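User: Study the chain.
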Amino acid sequence: MPAPASPTSLDLDLKLALAGSPAVSFARLSASLWAQPYLTADLLELCRLTLARLHRDEIEIAAVNPRAPHGQPGAQRRAAVLAGATYKSPAFSPGEKAVLLFTECYALDPQSIADEVAREAKDHLGEPGLVFLIEALGCLDARIRAARCLRDMAAYAPANRSAADAR
């Protein structure tokens, strides 16, 4: 499979470097997500893939995460997440299903996550873990959106330059 177009949420920092210290802080925050005690890197990667699926971002989905174990979760788990079939799959524990459902609800509307959905995720992660999950999802979603914007701007720039040159 050819390498996906850049940037993605996983290699965004190179494109943002011109922003200076805010970009460095954003990169440091992103790196810290993958080394914390609340979610495994595998489960966090499945959350990232859930967000990418809901954004319908094929480039993000194709990106290989160097911070996830062996670059990606197992093929069966990845396929279930990308198909939106997590809840039917025996490859996930009830706690993982709770986290991934919370992720889907967060992506659709963070303000209207049902109490039961939040409670199930909290039961699995604990209160500090749920707070971390909310912060992590915000960061992952922001990075996916920023990467998409930069890709869209790059795709638009050549057409914009051609129009300006024609004048």
In short: The CA atoms of residues 102 and 118 lie 7 Å apart. The radius of gyration is 17 Å. The chain has seven helices and no strands.
